[in-house]
Amino acid sequence: xxxxxxxxxxxxxxxxxxLVIALAAAIAAGGIAVDDARQASPAVAAPDxxxxxxxxxxxxxxxxxxxxxxxxxxxxxxxxxxxxxxxxGHVMRADLTTPTLELDVLDSGTVTGGATVSQQxxxxxxxxxxxxxxxxxxxxxxxxxxxxxxxxxxxxxxSAPRQAFTMTDGLAAVQELMVEGVLTVDGVxxxxxxxxxxxxxxxxxGWYTAAWGTHPLSRPLGGPGSLAASVAMVxxxxxVVQSVTTDREAVMAPAAxxxxxxxxxxxxxxAATLAALRVGQAVDVxxxxxxxxxxxxxxxxxxxxxxxxTPDDQIEAARTAVGVNRDGTEITVVSIDxxxxxxxxxxxxxxxxxxxxLGVHNAVNLDGxxxxxxxxxxPGTFEAEIVNxxxxxxxxxxxxxxxxxxxxxxxxxxxxxxxxxxxAADADAVFPRLGRxxxxxxxxxxxxxxxxxxxxxxxxxxxxxxxxxxTAVLRxxxxxxxxxxxxxxxxxxxxxxxxxxxxRRIRPSTTVVALPDPGQTARLxxxxxxxxxxxxxIETADVSVESGADVTVTADGRDAFVITxxxxxxxxxxxxxxxxxxxxxxVTIGHRSLTxxxxxxxxxxxxxxxxxxxxxxxxxxxxxxxxxxLDYDFTKSTGTRGYYAVVPEMSTPGSLGRRLDGxxxxxxxxxxxxxxxxxxxxxxxxxxxxxxxxDGPNVxxxxxxxxxxxxxxxxxxxxxxxxxxxxxxxxxxxYHGHVEIAGLESIVAPDVAQPAAPVVYDPVITTNGTVxxxxxxxxxxxxxxxxxxxxxxxxxxxxxxxxREILAAEPDLLVIDGDFVDEASEADIAFAKRILDEEIGDxxxxxxxxxxxEIMGGPIANFEAAFGETSRSIALGRTQLVTLNSSAGSxxxxxxxxxxxxxxxxxxxxxxxxxxxxxxxxxxPADDPLPSKASQLSDRYEAAAFTEALAQFRxxxxxxxxxxxxxxxxxxxxxxxxxxxLINGNSGKAPAGTPETGGFTGWTMLGIDPSHGKVGPQPxxxxxxxxxxxxxxxxARVDSIALDVPEVLLVGxxxxxxxTVTQDDGRVVPVRWPMSAIWGGDGxxxxxxxxxxxxxxxxxxxxxxxxxxxxxxxAIAPGTGTVEVVVNGQRASVEVHxxxxxxxxx
Length: 1146
Description:
Pfam family, one: NAGPA
Shape: globular
Radius of gyration: 36 Å
Strand order of the largest sheet: 1-2-3-21-20-22-18-19
Strand content: 35-45%
CATH architecture of the largest domain: 4-Layer Sandwich
Mean pLDDT: 93
Helix content: 10-25%
GO molecular function: hydrolase activity
Number of domains: 7
Protein name: Multidrug transporter
CATH superfamily of the largest domain: Metallo-dependent phosphatases
Number of helices: 14
Distance between the termini: 67 Å
Structural class: mainly beta
Low-confidence stretches: 5-39, 1090-1099
Largest sheet: 8 strands, antiparallel
């Protein structure tokens, strides 16, 4: 049949089961209570944007936090994803009707001195400040515009008009400012074209005061490189000329302008006017600006004029801007981060759009880029700190700043605040028995911190252990929401603290610490997780540490540890333990470089390719060393093309390649680039026998450059080198290329035991049982990756077999979760449609979600022409299904509008009381469970924000949500903040992982029970609330199945039991998580690890008690039992005789 339309309501396509009929009858008879669709349904909470409109610019995934800095001054931090990329910024709004709020323009003390914003406000008591005017960068440092300080008067005035933010009589405006000045000599007036400005125009005179500083006055005269041919300098005190000079050397000396004096300088034709003055002659100098202002800071582009956006534009960068409302009583300051992974900056047009959304009536762009700086004193603290992230990596020395002050009374406590003492994600959560330190502070009317002592109290669920009058440790007692309050006299504040489920595992911020230099240290933190994937930082007081003699580990405050080496070279395994859960961190000290390939054997290397041709020849590298030249033709296809240099060892049958010594942390390779953007990767076989690729940077350069290829943490050793690959994955790019490679080396640290990756057996995948009796069934397959030119290939056979198995299982819907085809040519897409028509026809509705291979060799239009839209919303009764397009490796790059679509669908599901849950399908997972991390969303900020959006939906609405992905080549499942995350393995192509990591072929059946979808804002139980709503049954492909269990057991004996399936070309896979099976048999009691099953198993009669989770069988009574296991419909059984010990002895 044809694929689904965009938003169908899917009825039961398979035969209704008896359970469903009985349920419907019970509802009709009134025997089962159902939700009233007219009831209000909780909405998804809006970000705390302080009432600001931050959702414009076609943006999505908005997060925001707002806090009051001082009376009348409010700061909002935000991040959002725009079509062109991430933007992180800050909006500060000042209410000028607040009598205690004041502004000033500050600098270093002189206009050429320069200082960071932090230095300019240090000791002034400023509550907040932003950088100000553009300045004479890499020269005098003086502002280029007109700047007026409320406390120090006119600081600079430019000859040309420039847009400026101004204040007059307490009201703000944006207007053009410039100098107004006159030199009067003997009644003759001559214009003064600048005050303390770094640039005087030709034939003009400027006025300079002590505020200029010591920078030579040659700068405004064109110096140092283009000093005017004619110059003059006149010192004036009390209206009388003190000295006159036309000496060019004099203006090039450091300036020394005393207080109460001023200096006139002139260039070119105007120099004669000053040169004619005489010592002792009376002169009158009058300077000011063209408008009556009390304060001014200049900028550049006027982005908003009387509510209308201007056409001015400029490339994206970090930005600082100021806007005012219509009546001048409100200021809006915007600071945008730039050159960061989560913030590309903004163009002037985008900044204008934002200002317009914020209701600004007039706005000016101030200095940006590396100058952008925002400092603020957070409430309850004592000093301002930098809020934004300067794009230079640290604060830039700037000319001046616009500072905000509060004159509200200080020192007297008017309020109190209590919060976790550590600044970390999820610090408002704690595990049972573990501690969370909270601290309290008093606040004065200015919101400055004032030390206080008081009393802590907690609601049930928390136990309070006071440390002092302002600090306490809260210990988790009972899972759920709780609160702590702090009281001083009649003042009180409280904070919400979540007690999570039992601690299941802990993870360090890094599992491998490499210290190349023995003088280095490393800082790491420890985070805990419960069985639903909720996290909380674990404080150092709750963690015990064991380490070897080569390092010391000490607590760094409440939430971090510092690892310090004690030897020049060595290694250690550091074990962190909290509440009985442990995790290891491998530490290495020192490193050495080892040659892997010097290419002296270049003639023995061979070439290989995919969809490309080329030649591989010896060449000469840097400094005359041997090299290899790869010439390749990437014009033969639009699919992924590759040309490879194959190591000589691979010519030996059965070889794994060239073994690398030790435990490399990275490889380096010299590459003579062609600037084509080709992607170099180094193919390895790891210690687990899995083929992996180490990724290098795209070759966007020309000439020789050393590239680094990192080895992912957790990679099993030893490594074997197989190929050096040059790849092109961009279907729209075709070219001939030439690169040369030389000097492949490994960076090897001392050997250390690699920490074992924690295995998470999430019960969202059932290991013993089936989901077939659940009201809604959704089958999922993916990653067949066939091509039309090989219609009889194993991938095609695997796809057809999977479709037949799914059809026989009678689901409501099939979701093909990407990479059904391999190259996405028109022929491939047509062949995919043909297979679906032949195998499914009109017997099962399906939706096809595009993966990266749906655009690998052709445009997405090929897919859309055959299968329709790439993002969909599908109503499956009370469950809403949403599919997204991640074919380009990220949602934004694949379709910039679909994340807005996702938010709209989540909001609709939240508002619809009839909906109890949402399942989101996309090809790429947010996180790849394999060490290589090669198969996850490429934008890690997008991945985190996407995951958070789903978690927020569950938290705000109390409705269930899950996400189902593919792409990795293994079956896997985990959970994050109560959201089940499933990965379907390959349904045709060979798996990418080992059987132990879920590397086998098959498909997944999702079983959904909408009646359990609404779990509420505080779910009643851990795990069960997720799995009662949705559970997955993983159907491995089975060619044969074997069961290993002893045929004779003594009463009371415990024996191991195991099963394996053989699939495809002889792959043997153990029957255990993440593979689903049904265990049982005659005389068998199964304990599957579920709630209460152990107790039921003990109470049950039978010959054998079987626990698939532990892989053990217990003989409990004499007799004969038959142990049986069923995987994907294939069955194996063994008859087991249980005898008394005496009978066995006889």
